[in-house]
């Protein structure tokens, strides 16, 4: 049954002759809010919302007081609220509401930092305005208004500016909005402002707006809801914890409509996937906000249909007045005869006085988007010895496209320019920095994604190259471990040979495992979303322990047999024992080592599983913190794996040897051999697993060793990426980096590829510098 507030609101609305949709539009709230208040579903009405409804109903003072009084009693300041059969205050609801609150705080803090990093408010935001998009890109207004059949309807007035975006969105009953704008027109700025303003005004029961870079979605491989869940888990690892019904908290938030997807970059979805993406979005009724360039969205619409129940708006260009208000305030005063004059004044005067000249037309066209204005500000406002009058030189810049390329080129050169008094921040040579950025941009282009994920930096290499690099590093690492640890136990010559054999076999074995588990699937090892808790209560992972016990035992059996079999055969050939003798000993040793490693690998793998526990639900990550978290997790795995596996292998060897002396005949074994096997196996096995089969290990092998060794990236990769973020070349989107803008990424990728077509010399390819990419 409806509450007192719901009954009263329905009566007053009918007296005013308004539908729920009409009242919601007039009040500037969502139709779901009106419907929820009338049915009693909304158990916590905000007084501010009720005041908006009262204003829209044009109530008399006594009616207004009656409505507000019912709201206060409903909200809990007076009598306890009437229970609603539609949505009771259950433990489940409260749990998910608390999780959503943590998510909202994390999202707001993240994008507030990002807005500050990008200097959006310095000195004030560039104007971002929009108008209604073409009618063919908008669904039927009856669908947008959620009207029943036969109802009269008309278009909503949805024009506005940046600080009005939430109000405009709330006027749309369907809660589905498409924001169109050409490259650099301010779509991302608008989505960030939408999220910040929406979170600031949301009620506890409202959904949490979360920005998703939809360009990384493959709708033919994963459903929309599953993709949302995966992205939430990546950026907020704590949401991987078990939620209601055995699903993760992230899945529960998506399933219950507590996440409002803000889908940025529909145009960045790979060619051929936009149509199935739009069809998948139309298969859902989730409220959402989608941004795209107009041409790509229109092409997808032409192939299938508009986004169901979605209104569409299109961002407009900046005007000359906008430039005149903004650019002079971004640079220092000239200090001449006119103390208030700046270097931009002559340029702006030229644009006003001779708007039809070729120079003015080109510059006006280029500076019509916030992206290009921001680049011009960086190059000419923030650098005193650069004169913006250069932008009017038609001999250097014969077309608007050349002028845009100049601003893109100048941006990276300017931000990496050494500056006196810049503090302790590490400097990078501009040419090399631009080459490394070009490789990263090229890497993203090959992967068809805007997301620069540290665990996928090696994914741009060919699969055989990745496998060979992994096997080689593991070979060297484990061979060195075997040699160093074995020196106190055996003669140096024997131990060097043993280390060589152990290293080669380990490299081959782990290389095969890497190929079968990772490279053959053309994927990468994803970062762990759990940590290890050695004391206290761990997570609910015991149900995974038995399968991993079996997997660990089988892997140990295969590896142990291979190691035990090949080493005697190799030693037989090396020390001239004879091939037949080596094969006979190899079969015996393979059987023994296979059983030993099976007994050690299975329980150790299961123990790691039992100790896993999800991260705290309040945890939100950036790329560096996620890398550090995974490094700590791998370190904990090493600390557990090495002694556990070592002890099980050392003591297990004694038991296996005793048990196999009957079937295999006399076997020589002693405590010293057990100690050596335990130490070498523990350290070697843990190190091989960490380097080959964890995200941090692959980062260390490919991004910290292989790519810098071949010149594609600097040795200090993390420092370089963080420095690029601080300089404004990259931005952070949760756990990943992205280029400041897709236009900048494509420009750098194109400039990187150009010199690779001419390997004849570096004189014609200064961008390439002294590095050669052989991928």
TrEMBL record:
Q: Which spans are transmembrane here?
A: 468-487, 499-518, 549-570, 590-611, 638-657, 677-702
> Which stretches make up the HTH cro/C1-type domain?
9-64
Q: Name one Pfam family in it.
A: HTH_31
Region Disordered: list its residue ranges. 755-775
| Keyword field | Membrane, Transmembrane, Transmembrane helix
The protein depicted here goes by the name: Helix-turn-helix domain-containing protein
List the taxonomic lineage.
Bacteria, Bacillati, Actinomycetota, Actinomycetes, Kitasatosporales
């Amino acid at each position: 049954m409806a509450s007192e507030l719901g009954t009263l609101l329905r009566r007053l609305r009918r007296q005013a002759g308004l539908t729920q949709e009409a009242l919601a539009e007039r009040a500037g709230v969502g139709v779901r809010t009106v419907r929820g208040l009338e049915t009693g579903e909304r158990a916590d009405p905000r007084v501010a919302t009720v005041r908006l409804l009262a204003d829209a109903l044009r109530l008399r003072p006594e009616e207004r007081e009656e409505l507000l009084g019912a709201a206060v009693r409903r909200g809990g300041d007076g009598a306890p609220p009437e229970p609603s059969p539609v949505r009771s205050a259950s433990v489940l609801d409260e749990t998910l509401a608390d999780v959503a609150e943590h998510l909202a705080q994390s999202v707001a803090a993240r994008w507030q930092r990002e807005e500050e990093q990008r200097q959006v408010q310095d000195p004030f935001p560039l104007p971002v305005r929009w108008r209604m998009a073409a009618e063919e890109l908008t669904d039927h207004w009856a669908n947008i208004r959620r009207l029943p059949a036969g109802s009269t309807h008309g278009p909503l007035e949805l024009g506005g500016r940046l600080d009005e975006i939430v109000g405009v969105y709330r006027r749309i009953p369907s809660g589905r909005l498409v924001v169109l704008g050409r490259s650099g027109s301010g779509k991302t700025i608008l989505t960030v402002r939408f999220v910040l303003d929406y979170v600031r005004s949301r009620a506890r029961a409202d959904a949490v707006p979360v920005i998703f870079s939809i360009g990384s979605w493959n709708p033919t491989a994963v459903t929309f809801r599953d993709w949302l869940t995966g992205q939430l888990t990546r950026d907020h690892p704590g949401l991987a914890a078990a939620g209601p019904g055995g699903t993760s908290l992230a899945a529960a938030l998506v399933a219950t409509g507590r996440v409002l997807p803000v889908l940025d970059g529909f145009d960045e979805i790979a060619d051929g996937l936009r149509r199935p993406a739009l069809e998948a979005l139309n298969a859902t009724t989730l409220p959402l906000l989608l941004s795209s360039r107009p041409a790509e969205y229109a092409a997808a619409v032409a192939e299938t249909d508009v986004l169901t129940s979605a209104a569409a708006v299109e961002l407009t260009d900046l005007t000359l007045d906008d430039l005149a208000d903004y650019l002079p305030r971004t640079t220092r005063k000239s200090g001449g005869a006119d103390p208030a004059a700046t270097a931009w004044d002559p340029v702006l005067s030229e644009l006003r006085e001779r708007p039809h000249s070729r120079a003015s037309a080109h510059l006006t066209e280029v500076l019509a988007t916030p992206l290009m204005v921001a680049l011009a500000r960086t190059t000419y406002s923030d650098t005193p010895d650069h004169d913006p009058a250069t932008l009017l030189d038609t001999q250097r810049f014969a077309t608007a496209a050349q002028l845009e390329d100049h601003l893109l080129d100048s941006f990276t050169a300017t931000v990496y320019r050494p500056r006196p008094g810049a503090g302790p921040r590490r400097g990078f040579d501009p040419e090399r920095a631009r080459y490394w950025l070009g490789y990263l941009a090229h890497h993203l282009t090959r992967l068809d994604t805007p997301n620069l994920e540290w665990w996928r930096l090696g994914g741009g290499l060919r699969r055989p190259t990745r496998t060979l690099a992994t096997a080689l590093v593991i070979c060297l690492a484990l061979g060195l471990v075997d040699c160093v640890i074995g020196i106190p136990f055996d003669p140096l010559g024997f131990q060097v040979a043993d280390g060589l054999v152990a290293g080669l076999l380990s490299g081959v074995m782990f290389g095969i495992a890497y190929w079968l588990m990772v490279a053959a699937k053309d994927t990468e090892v994803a970062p762990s979303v759990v940590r290890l808790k050695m004391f206290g209560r761990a997570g609910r992972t015991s149900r995974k322990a038995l399968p991993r016990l079996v997997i660990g035992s089988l892997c140990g059996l295969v590896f142990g047999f291979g190691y035990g079999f090949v080493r005697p055969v190799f030693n037989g050939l090396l020390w001239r024992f004879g091939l037949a003798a080596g094969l006979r000993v190899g079969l015996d040793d393979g059987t023994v080592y296979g059983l030993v490693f099976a007994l050690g690998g299975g329980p150790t793998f299961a123990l790691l599983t039992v100790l896993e526990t999800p991260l705290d639900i309040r945890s939100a990550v950036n790329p560096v913190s996620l890398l550090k978290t995974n490094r700590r997790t791998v370190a904990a795995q090493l600390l557990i794996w090495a002694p556990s596996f070592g002890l099980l292998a050392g003591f297990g060897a004694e038991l296996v040897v005793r048990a196999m002396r009957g079937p295999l005949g006399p076997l020589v074994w002693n405590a010293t051999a057990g100690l050596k096997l335990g130490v070498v196996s523990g350290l070697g096995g843990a190190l091989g697993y960490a380097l080959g089969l964890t995200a941090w290990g692959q980062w260390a092998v490919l991004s910290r060793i292989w790519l810098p060794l071949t010149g594609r990236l600097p040795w200090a990769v993390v420092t370089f990426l963080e420095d690029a973020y601080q300089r404004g070349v990259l931005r952070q989107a949760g756990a990943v980096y992205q280029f400041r803008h897709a236009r900048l990424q494509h420009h750098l990728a194109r400039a990187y590829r150009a010199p690779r077509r001419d390997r004849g010399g570096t004189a014609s390819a200064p961008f390439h510098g002294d590095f050669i990419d052989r991928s």
